[in-house]
Amino acid sequence: MAMKMPRRLLLALMLLGAASSVAAQRSFAVISLVGDRIEVVVPRQSTGSGLDRNLRDTLKDGAGSFDRIALGAVANAVEKALPGAATTLLALPPNDLHDDAERLFDGNRVQLPASVAAALAKMPLTHLLLLTKQRGDARVPITEGHTGMGKVQGVGFYVDRWFATSNAATGEGATGFLAPFVYIRLTLVELASGRVQGQRAVMTMQLLPVTTRAKSSDPWDLMPAAEKASLLKGLLEDEIARLVPTVLGRG
């Protein structure tokens, strides 16, 4: 049964742009469902199997700016992997699919909401590149392996205020760290059949320790908000640039 999308959501569906190549054998629609919010995840020292091991807050992105960043990054990566291939970028406003994209998948097929499928059917498109959130264990790289508690997904920051680290080169110690993360999955779908033709996921975290030179001992205050947003944007773009060629068989 095809899923329905509320009329207000259909009206908000925006075509952001299309490349002007008709010679490419494949043409791609691109949808991102990762940028409705930035997650802020803080580990807590508690026990009990029934407890989430993290405290969570969200910075909602009602304008979908991180989805737009992701769409642009996919388009750029497609152009590098398949020069001349047409891409049509579709921006969906924040909706329940951002947190429940798994319901689009039925085995080896993807079934889009009826309104989205109808909009795509009117365009000369052969494939869909669908970007969704990937849920996985928090794994922050440290000198000897990884650290982290609980699960994270999508894009955001892991804020640890008690873990002790040290710089192997200088011996300088630190307590606490900030770790931007990108946990996403990219799926290639043949639009005519709905079949999944390729899928890859990345789960990346970066360690930014608090040092004695930091202006604040709170990891969240390591940098201004604009700098944190820029850091997360760069990490998202880098990971998408790695994902796209592998999904397209050019990696």
List the helices and strands and how they pair.
Elements: H1 7-11, E1 14-18, E2 27-32, E3 37-43, E4 54-60, H2 65-81, E5 86-91, E6 105-106, E7 109-110, H3 114-121, E8 127-133, E9 135-137, E10 140-142, E11 145-147, E12 151-166, E13 173-190, E14 196-205, E15 208-209, H4 225-247
Parallel strand pairs: 2-5, 2-8, 3-12
Antiparallel strand pairs: 1-5, 3-4, 6-7, 8-13, 9-12, 10-11, 12-13, 13-14, 13-15
Helix pairs in contact: 2-4
Can you offer a commentary on this structure?
The protein is elongated. It is α+β, with helices and mostly antiparallel strands and 251 residues long. It has helices spanning 7-11, 65-81, 114-121, 225-247; strands at 14-18, 27-32, 37-43, 54-60, 86-91, 105-106, 109-110, 127-133, 135-137, 140-142, 145-147, 151-166, 173-190, 196-205, 208-209. The chain has four helices and 15 strands. Strands 1, 2, 3, 4, 5, 8, 9, 12, 13, 14 and 15 form an eleven-stranded mixed β-sheet that branches. A two-stranded antiparallel ribbon has the order 6-7. The protein has a two-stranded antiparallel sheet with strand order 10-11. Helix 2 runs parallel beside helix 4. It is 21% helix and 39% strand.
